[in-house]
Amino acid sequence: MKTTWGARSSPGGIILASWGQIERIVSRSDVVLFVLDARDPLNTFSPKLIKLVNRHGRRILLVLNKCDLIPRRIAEEWKSYFENKGYPTVYVAATRRMGTIKLRTAIKHVAPSLPAVASVVGYPKVGKSSIINALKGKHSASTSPYPGNPGYTKTFQFYRVDENLLMIDTPGILPAEGDPLEKVLRGYPPEKLDDPVNPAIMLIQRILKYNPRAFLDAYGIESKEPLRILEEVAIHRGWFYKKTKEPLIEEAARAIIRDYHDGKLTYYIKPSQVNFELGASNDKSKNSRVQ
Ligand SMILES: Nc1nc2c(ncn2[C@@H]2O[C@H](COP(=O)(O)OP(=O)(O)OP(=O)(O)O)[C@@H](O)[C@H]2O)c(=O)[nH]1
Ligand SMILES: [Mg+2]
Questions:
Q1: For residue 107, how far is its CA from the centre of ligand 2 (angstroms)?
Q2: What is the DSSP letter of 175?
Q3: Which residues are 167's β-sheet partners?
Q4: Judgement on whether residues 245 and 170 belong to the same structural domain of the protein
Q5: 68 lines ligand 1 (CB under 6 A)
Q6: Which residues, other chains included, contact 239 with Cβ-Cβ below 8 Å and sequence gap of 6+?
Q7: Residue range 22-31, pLDDT digits in tens
Q8: Is 129 in the pocket of ligand 1 (CB under 6 A)?
Q9: Could you give the strand order of the β-sheet that contains 165-169, starting from the edge strand earlier in sequence?
Q10: CA of 245 to the centre of ligand 1 (A)
Q11: Ligand in closest contact with the CA of 144
Q12: Which residues form the domain of 243?
């Protein structure tokens, strides 16, 4: 079963969810699956979303997705990290259908009663629709590598996963908060960035800091100098300004941002490398540990 409501487009034709829309969905959910990118969970975590869910007294389940891009040991470490803060957490690799049985069990465990409505929320491109696809076992929620492509989630869609579980897929939350790097990590559409070069340089520096081989492995580029990397990507792909014939680094910057979200270009961070305090969950007895 699939029903939709609340379709809305944001300026520029790229559709993201406003906080008001997310609040409406949260208020209609029994459980809120908050999807994080397992490679950089804290940069895709939103204290504002947690506050909103707590205000409505809804249960939260954190889902660390894209775990195929990090070692399992690190996924376990992040799970413990969040659970020590009171958030039940599961890790999955939705496109590989890894962890889906545990996820389904966890949703039902966290739900106050069954049947339950579970919404899937988070920043753009963290894999919300892919998670619903994995749970349903077939391609039913549309997915895309980056917002703006045909197939990215445009509406709030309901999917019946089984007789006890109705799920709501949502468009990504508009990542208005944060500096240019944080916005990019939170899936702000590269097409909408007036200046993609600056955030791409920051992203390149972050990737190199945690994975010095990333550009060599993804593109065969040995340079560790962000501007040079942008130029080489533009040159390799044949992107040049028509008049000056200089490498079109703006396009290369957008490509690098997309490749990060697609998992072609990657790094991961460990809990021991961060120094960030999360707000505790609203009720530790409700959000008990989930296996
Ligand atoms: N490597 C890897 N890539 C994934 C995984 N899950 C999703 N992706 C990729 O991430 C991109 C975004 O996936 P979607 O499921 O469309 O993400 P979304 O959160 O629904 O995106 P929006 O609806 O645009 O907010 C796609 O290129 C997916 O193939 C995963 O577990 N591993
Ligand atoms: Mg989607």
A1: 19
A2: -
A3: 118, 159
A4: no
A5: yes
A6: 247, 248, 251, 252
A7: 999 999 999 9
A8: yes
A9: 2-5, 156-162, 165-169, 116-121, 31-37, 59-65, 89-91
A10: 35
A11: 1
A12: 180-262
Looking at the structure of the chain, the number of domains it has is: 2
- Whether 192 and 169 share a structural domain: no
158: which strand partners?
3, 168
Q: Is the CB of 182 under 6 A from ligand 1?
A: no
Q: Over its length of 291 residues, how does the chain's per-residue pLDDT go in tens digits?
A: 444 444 344 444 556 788 888 999 999 999 999 999 999 999 999 999 999 999 999 999 999 999 999 999 999 999 999 999 999 999 999 999 999 999 999 999 999 999 999 999 999 999 999 999 999 876 556 555 444 444 456 678 889 999 999 999 999 887 766 788 999 999 988 888 889 999 999 999 999 999 999 999 999 999 999 999 999 999 999 999 999 999 999 999 999 999 999 999 989 999 998 865 565 555 444 444 333
In this structure, is residue 279 part of a structural domain? Answer: no
Q: Are residues 187 and 247 in the same domain?
A: yes
CATH number assigned to the domain comprising residue 247: 1.10.1580
CA 255 from centroid of its chain's CA atoms: 18
Q: Is the shortest distance between the CB of 157 and ligand 1 below 6 Å?
A: no
Model's pTM, two decimal places?
0.88
Residues 103 and 193 in one domain: no
Query: Which residue out of 95, 153, 156 has the highest number of ligand 1 atoms within 8 Å of its CB and is therefore the one to mutate?
Result: 95
Q: How far is the CA of 228 from the centre of ligand 2 (A)?
A: 33
Whether residues 220 and 204 share a domain: the answer is yes
Q: State whether the beta carbon of 266 lies less than 6 angstroms from ligand 1.
A: no
Let me know: does 164 contact 220? Beta carbons within 8 Å: no
DSSP bridge pairs for 93: 98
Give me 220's structure tokens. 């065969």
